[in-house]
Amino acid sequence: MWPIINKPNYLLIHNTMKKLFIIAIAALFMVMGLSSCGYNTMVSKEEAVSSAVGNLQTAYQKRADLIPNLVATVKSYAEYEAGTLTAVVEARAKATQVTLDADNLTEENLKAFQSAQDEMSGALSRLLVTVEQYPDLKANQNYLDLQSQLEGCENTISNARRQFNEAVQDYNTFIRMFPTNLIAKLFGFDKKPYFEASEGAEKAPDVKGLFE
């Protein structure tokens, strides 16, 4: 025999389940609404940061690619600058070994990258200063070609740093705003670090003046 269900209790259970169902549907639509407008935008902004990371590394790599030619040119005219040349070569090796991973963009990793690039900038600046002692070297055509290329690299690096920080600021601001901050926490969108070069490093070496 089927159990006899008291009608008032049945209605109470029915109404309660109906309310829970409505609440669940409303919550589902709310989450879907938040994720569709917030999640997709966060993905887009995070991809912009990843692109900026790639552009930043490419800019520094182009400068690094000029170093062997620069060292060879200086060495042929300034053989007594062995210590300075060695420092540049070693700094370049270190700088090219330290890379950024857009999927693991932590403050620690970014600082390590910055430090290696700052060391490269310092070694390069010291090398270019020695050029003042060698007028014949400054008049060398290959060296003059490097002037233009290095100037372009420093400008590209400066722009890449700025664009990287702009992309990070845009992303960080968005994931901290309500209600997207809820979606950010739910899906693991974390704040990303800025490129904050050491004091003086944000100013590109005066490459042009050193070549004149």
Summarize this structure as a short list of keywords or feature phrases.
212 residues, mainly alpha, de novo design (two linked rop proteins), 7 helices, disordered C terminus
Proportion of residues in extended strands = under 5%
- Give the tally of β-strands: 0
Structure class = mainly alpha
Weakly predicted, low-confidence segments: 200-212
Overall description:
- It is a single chain.
- Mean pLDDT is 82; it is low at 200-212.
- This protein has a single domain, classed as de novo design (two linked rop proteins), CATH 1.20.1440.20.
- The protein has helices at residues 7-77, 82-97, 107-130, 135-138, 141-176, 180-187, 207-211.
- By secondary structure, it is an all-alpha fold.
- The chain is built from 7 helices and no strands.
- The protein is rod-shaped, with a radius of gyration of 29 Å.
- It starts with 6 loop residues before the first helix and ends with a helix.
